[in-house]
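Standup notes
- DV: blocked on the single-chain target, sequence here:
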Amino acid sequence: MGERNAGNMITIDSINQKVGRGERITSEEGLYLYENASLGQVGKLANLIRERLHGDRTYFNRNFHVEPTNVCIYTCSFCSYSRLIKERSDGWEYTHDDIMEMVKKYDHEPVTEVHIVGGVLPQYDVRWYERLFQAIKAHRPELHIKALTPVEYHYIFKKEKISYAEGMRRMKTAGLDSMPGGGAEIFHPEIREEIAGDKCTGEQWLDIHQEWHLLGQRSNATMLYGHIERFEHRIDHLDKLRSLQDETGGFQTMIPLKFRNKGNHMAHVPESTTVEDLRNYAISRIYLDNFKHIKAYWPMIGRETAQLSLAFGVNDIDGTIDDTTKIYSMAGAEEQAPSMSTRELVALIKSVGRHPIERNTLYDVIKDYDEVKFEDDEEFRGYLDLPVVNG
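- DV (later): unblocked, structure below
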C-alpha cells in the first residue's frame, strides 16, 4: 500500500473531501489514516458519518447471554475464557435442561434476545443445537435467537459432513434468527495462524456469513485489535468485511473488540491505549461505508471510554442485566461484574448529548427515551430500574 491514489498524493485534506462528498476511501487511504491521522482528525470524519446516518441516535437492547460451555478443543493464544478438555474440571458444560432453566429465568423480563456462544466440544453438534433452538422457540416464540459463531458452525458442519449452505438452512429451520460477530479475530493468515491457527480460517468465517446472508438473514461482524497485528492487517480485515457487505448487504453492525491480556498466553503483549481504541472505532466507521452501525461494548472498555466513543463513530452502546457473559470479564475487561439499570444507561447516553433508543436485534425501535422525564413519566416509573443488557 502506498502514498498515492489515482496519481494524487494522499493527504488528510484529500480524505476529508472524499468523505465530505460521501465517497468511499481506498485501502491506501485507510492505511494512511492509521499511520498518520490524529485522534481529532479521524474523530471529526467519523462523527460526520455517524451523524449523517443517525443524527444523535444511540441504540441499546435488552438481552441475556447463554454460554453452553467454556471447555474447548481449540487453543487460541488470546483467549482467557476457554479451558482445554484436560482442564475441564475448571469449566462448565451445560445440558439442554440447564440452559432452559436459564432461559426461563427471564420469562418475566422485557428481554428481546438470547445470545448463545461458547466453546467447541464434540457433544455440542448440529442435532444438539437444533433441539436447543427448537426448545427455546417452543417456550418463548418471540425471543430472538442470536447464536454461534463460524468457529462453532465450521466444526459442527464438518463433523456432520454437511456443507455450510445446508448447515445454515438447518439452523434457520430450527429457529436461529441471526448470527453474532464473534470468531473473526484478524482475517489475515499471517496473524490468524499465530493467535488462532487451529480454528476456521478468515475465508471460512466469511463463507459461513455469506451463506447465512444468502438465506435473507442478518449477522454482525467483529475485529479483535490491539495485539500483534499491524495497521495493514486491520485494513485487510475491514476490506474483506466491506467487500462481502457489497455482495450480500447482510451485516448489521461492526463491533471492534479490544484485546485484553489477563489470564492468557499473550499476557506479555501490552494493551492498546484509550486514544488508539477511539482511533480504531473512528477509522472503522470511516472505512465501512456500507455498514449502518458501529457498536461499542461498554463492559470491555469501561463506561467513560464508551461515552467518548459516541463522538468517534459509534452509535450503539451495550449494557448488561447481570454478569451473564464471562468471555470478556475473564480476560480483564474494565467491568468485572457489569450491571447498569435502564436509568443509568439512558443517563450515560444523555450526558454526552446523545439520544437514547431501545431497539430489538434488527434495529426496530422499541422505545425512544429522548423525551422521557424519569420523575414525571408514569409509564417509565414502573420499570425505572429494570436492568438492560448487551446486544
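- Follow-up: The chain has two domains: 4-50, 56-381.
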